[in-house]
Amino acid sequence: MNKIFLTAFAFLLLMNLLFDLKRLRKQNKSLKGLYITVYSLTCFTFITILFGVKLPMPTHFFINQVSPWVFSIVHP
Question: Structure pTM?
């Protein structure tokens, strides 16, 4: 991913968090826990991408493994 996309994503993530903090204070504990979990996973994924670590994604498996196999069956 290019740097412009990563910068825009970080900015949007931060702005979304700042806007939601006011509303999040009034929510129950289970919703706060879910919110913290989702934000933690998002930030972890973002940081690993910044460090250049490629996380395995299901779409890569289908594009690289399943799609050529199906194409070889359909078009012999």
Answer: 0.65
Report CA-CA distances (Å) from 38 to 11, 35, 41, 45, 58. 17, 5, 5, 11, 19
Phi and psi based region of residue 71 (left: phi greater than 0; alpha: psi -120 to 50; beta: remaining): alpha
**CA 26 to mean position of chain CA atoms:** 26
Q: Tell me the pLDDT tens digit for each residue of 48-64.
A: 888 888 887 788 888 88
Q: In the numeric block, which tokens belong to residue 59?
A: 């779409």
Q: Is 13 exposed, middle or buried (0-12, 13-18, 19+ CB in 10 A)?
A: middle
Burial class from Cβ neighbours inside 10 Å (0-12, 13-18, 19+) for residue 9 reads middle
Query: Helix (H, G, I), strand (E, B), or coil: what is residue 45?
Result: helix
